[in-house]
Specification:
Helices cover 75% and strands 0% of the residues. The chain contains 6 helices and no strands.
Length: 118
C-alpha cells in the first residue's frame, strides 16, 4: 500500500516537474513572479500596477475557481493575502500537472495509420 502510494506520488511529481511542457510553464510563471516582485518592490507607481495580472493570466482558470470557492468563506478569507498566494501556488501546481499529463498523452499518441510506402 505504501509503495503504491509512493509510486503515484512519484508519477505525479514527474508529471508536474519532469515533463518539458511543465518545465516551460513553470519557467513562464517564475519569470512573471519575478517581474511582479521587482515591480512591487522597486518601482514607484502613482496608481496601482497591473503587473500582477500576468500571474493571474498564467494561472487562469484554476485560480478563479479557488477565488470563487474562497468567497463562500467570506471576505475575511477570500480577501486575505495568504489565501490569494495559496490559490496561486495550488493553481500553478495543478496546471503544471495537467500540462504534463497532456504532453504525455500527445507523445503517447500513435503515428498516422498510413500503410507502409503510402
Amino acid at each position: 500500500m505504501n509503495s503504491e502510494r509512493s509510486e503515484r506520488l512519484g508519477a505525479l511529481t514527474r508529471l508536474t516537474f519532469g515533463s518539458r511542457v511543465s518545465q516551460v510553464y513553470l519557467a513562464l510563471v517564475a519569470v512573471a513572479a519575478v517581474y511582479v516582485a521587482v515591480d512591487a518592490i522597486f518601482v514607484h507607481h502613482e496608481d496601482a500596477s497591473f503587473a500582477g495580472v500576468w500571474l493571474f493570466a498564467l494561472t487562469a482558470p484554476t485560480v478563479f475557481v479557488f477565488l470563487l470557492l474562497g468567497d463562500l468563506f467570506g471576505d475575511a478569507v477570500s480577501g486575505a493575502s495568504w489565501f490569494v498566494y495559496t490559490a496561486l501556488v495550488l493553481s500553478v501546481l495543478i496546471q503544471s500537472a495537467a500540462l504534463g499529463w497532456f504532453g504525455r498523452l500527445l507523445r503517447g499518441r500513435p503515428r498516422s495509420a498510413h500503410p507502409q510506402g503510402a
